[in-house]
Amino acid sequence: MTEKPFTIIEWLELYQEGVQTPRDLISKLISSLDPHDPALILICPDWYIEKQLLQLEKAENKSLPLYGIPFVVKDNIDVAGLATTAACPEFVYIAKDNAQVVDRLMNAGAILVGKTNLDQFATGLVGTRSPFGVVPNTFDARYISGGSSSGSASMVARGIIPFSLGTDTAGSGRIPAGLNNIVGLKATPGKVPMQGVLPACKTLDVVSIFSLTVADAEKVLSIIEETVDQNIPPLFVNQNAWFRNGEGLPKLGIPANSVLDKELGYQKAFENTVANINKQFEVTTINMGLFEQVAQLLYEGPWVAERFITIEDLYKSKPHAIDPTVKKVIEKALQFDAITTFKKQYELEDLKKKTQEIWREIDVLVVPTTPTCPTIDAVAKEPILRNSELGAYTNFVNLLGLCAIAIPASISDSGLPFGITLIAPNGYDHALVKLASFLEKGNSLFLGKNLRSKGFLDQVKNSSLACKPSIEIAVVGAHLKGMPLHYQIQNSQCKLLETTVTAKEYRLFALANTTPPKPGLVRVEEDGAEIEVEIYQMPLDQVGAFLKQIPEPLGLGSVKLQSGRFVKGFICEPIGTQGAKDISEFGGWRGYLKK
């Protein structure tokens, strides 16, 4: 590939060609960054970039899922040795440790290149409340970029980096995506670790992911998410069902009375989107009244007090350092007492119960990501009013513990992007991105700010999120690419997703008396090693026939990857290791065969 890489897939392909190295491409990227770019608060210094490159080169593991992939993080996410400002210079501190999500990305091979601008203390949906400058819309600089994760979205939309991290409390990880023609993934609260992230509302905050494709967003989520909660209901009740209700395709809900900006062409854009969805899915109209009541609680209720906790010391010592609009919003916390707080919590719990009736009717709620996109001048004149209009379809999501993903839908008649957001109950994150990928596949839009469309649909079709129900299978031995039993993988209509390694909790054995020769993967309590595996996407309707071909003592079980997530994969019964040779030191079956 000779063109500039934009997506994670494209960056990895360029490295695999062997012509370019992370040192080559990251150095070129750093030199191209503009220190005056309003999307950036900090470009990582040379010493920090060099430290990361040396660590990556020392690892000598090109199979890392994010090998040499550059990224940026919102400047309320800690990076050890670098400043965290939250867009307030008087608040600045040097982080002692990486945020847990940053650690997980770096362990997967990613290279941090900078920290991005935001609405101060992540309070705002506009991207204008920062002393480091206003981040403009990437399509038309007269309009806002959306916030508070404005810089993170802008860097992705312009194709500077393939993915970035933001945060989301009221829509900060979705609105900038919708206004800049990119993907914004907001997981279920609690699914992504928040250690090392400066709180806005600590009980609601979620680290969000921006990318150009759904496949890239899901890849990053799989690396930073916590171990799968076994109490979450399965994504499929049978091989044909995407969600928990019924069989076949998910049931979608849309707002009964959506009022969107007609001058910008948003109303027409949403109507066209709904018309297309109606051709493929069963759609029900939903009264949004309950969700609107929940949304009012976020800024008009005591949850704003959580924002005050973060800035309390600064508010008392240097109130002038706080953006006037941010200060006005957060000062509302002072009017709430403990009695009111409990009353509002009871009110929220009651609303949660009532909204459960809606989720008995539908699997996914499809809404406009935002009803409008004001100009920067309009926000300056009426900052609170214009901001409040933006969150009509986002403010309620975290309070209700839901998951959501914003995806591009069209370019409106005004030339501005229009996006939709898919919302589902807590825990259905990966099912939701499957639906997002299906809708994305039928979208002919260019990536981001008119980057390119070439190869886009092929990437979606070959990603782990193909719409056909499937599971991921980790293979470790004779089924690897180029090995004697790889034909069984091919016959099962599998697609290679990535080459990676297990968690450091396994031993690999060369089994005795097997034809063709096979290894056995065994999980151990101590003295484990990382073992190379290939991850394949296997259609669910092929799993049964594939299982019949697996001889004892091998079988399919759960395999823990280096990222901490589990996939199905080949495991060996302990009895199978009798008379077998421990070959863990070679790091995998290929390494052993090359000895």
Task: Provide an overview of this structure.
Strands 1-5-2-6-8-7-12-13-11-9-10 form an eleven-stranded mixed β-sheet, sandwiched between helices. A five-stranded mixed β-sheet has the order 15-18-14-20-19. Strands 17-16-21 form a three-stranded antiparallel β-sheet, with no helix packed on it. β12 and β13 (about 415-425) form a beta hairpin. It contains 20 helices and 21 strands. The protein has about 600 residues and is α+β, with helices and mostly antiparallel strands. α9 (about 290-300) runs antiparallel to α12. It is globular, with a radius of gyration of 24 Å. The relative contact order is 0.11.
- Widest sheet: strand ordering: 1-5-2-6-8-7-12-13-11-9-10
Number of separate helices: 20
Query: Mind telling me the C-alpha Rg?
Result: 24 Å
Question: Which shape, going by the Cα principal axes?
Answer: globular
Spans of at least 5 consecutive residues whose pLDDT stays below 50 are 228-241, 454-467
Main sheet, how many strands, which sense, barrel? 11 strands, mixed
Overall SS class: alpha+beta
Beta strand count: 21
Percentage of helical residues?
25-40%
Terminus-to-terminus distance? 32 Å
Strand content: 15-25%
- Mean pLDDT equals 89
